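Reply to dn_fold:

You asked what the input looked like. This is it:
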Amino acid sequence: MTLAMSDADRESQFRQMRDTAREIFRDALAEASIAKAFARHVHCERGVLRVREDLYHLQAYSRVLVISIGKAGHTMAEALARQVGESFLASSLEGIVASSVEPSSQVRGFRYFRGGHPTPNAESIHAANAILKALEAQTAASLVIFLLSGGGSSIVEKPIDDEISLNDLIATYRALVHSGAPIAEINAIRKHLSAVKGGQLAQAAFPAQQVSLLVSDVPDHALDALASGPTMADSTSVEDCYRIAEKHCLLPQFPHSTRELFQSHALEETPKSDDQAFHRSRWWTILSNQTAVEQASAAAGRAGFAVHVDNSCDDWDYERAAEYLLKRARELRRDFGRVCLISGGEVTVKVTNGGIGGRNQQFALACAAKIAGESITVLSAGTDGVDGNSPAAGAVVDGTTAERAQSKGLDAGAALKKFDAYPFFSALGDAIETGPTGNNLRDLRILLAY
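and this is what came back:
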């Protein structure tokens, strides 16, 4: 009887910790919201728009155009509209919103496109053409407000070469996404294959005054990788692209039209910092992964954990990151007792099979076998609510995951090998399913050791 009670108590503790990890993640999402970020950093009163440290007298411009691109496209456009106010909005603002989901409501006077993600679709190209046409109509008396968030690379796209068909574009994106390359390297190539990335929307908008508000899903030191940097000077070069393609053996995976541009060294350079397009441009980050990390840390502290942050495994391979973070969690538990280790950023996964899942679930599944029987809980999830090609944001595992899976006839090793983590976690009830959040601040890994 005592043993049975002990087992029941043990399972109850593990379940409670899985719930606690979920609550920490949910709290981080709620506190790092776009609405709260706009309330802090964007304000409009009597026609004067304040963006962080800048002031824009909206009525002084002949036209004010808003371009909102990315997974947070709808929520950013709605947040700006709320700050500007209905009366000014109706009379003076026009805009284009391109996101990967349908809007729950629309801002008056704005046009909407539903682009593809993680690969472009026909609407991605329609959106790019509409945006370029609208920008090219602006003058020096215009103000263009860009609202940029992650996912914009595929949501708005126009190939630099007409020989690259939509199917070729999709195949190119798929090769890049599955290559295991860090996002900055992937986007370096995307920039040089595109007519809208790497500062080219800023060029199209010149000579208008420009300001970009960024909800960042890229490392803080590489902001021009966000949505492949459509409004920022490009820090990468064509030589970088050739080197990255060789490093990740991409040419054999590219379709002929793309491969030919690399083989003939026909890629063209993107705008750099001395380009006149950037002389009247400003960029402000209003949300980033750091915000999500800080809010998760605060939630973990409220839950009674000693909190430590370690982002050093950003862009590491998921297996290496799992080994490193679990070792750190065990060390911290030894030194501090009940601890929560928070890790922001993204891990990389080189996909060789076509299962259903994503990098967060792959990371979590890799952890499950390494913590069997231990008092450790690991949650890994994307703040956008979408992990890879699955309907989940991520997953949570603990010391009982392997045992519970075995009792249900689930093969964790096979799921890991096939990159098919979502069916595994869905069957266990351990998938994190939030739906698209309308935000995108990279991933959070939450490790509880107790």
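The two ends are 25 Å apart (CA to CA).
Hope that clears it up.
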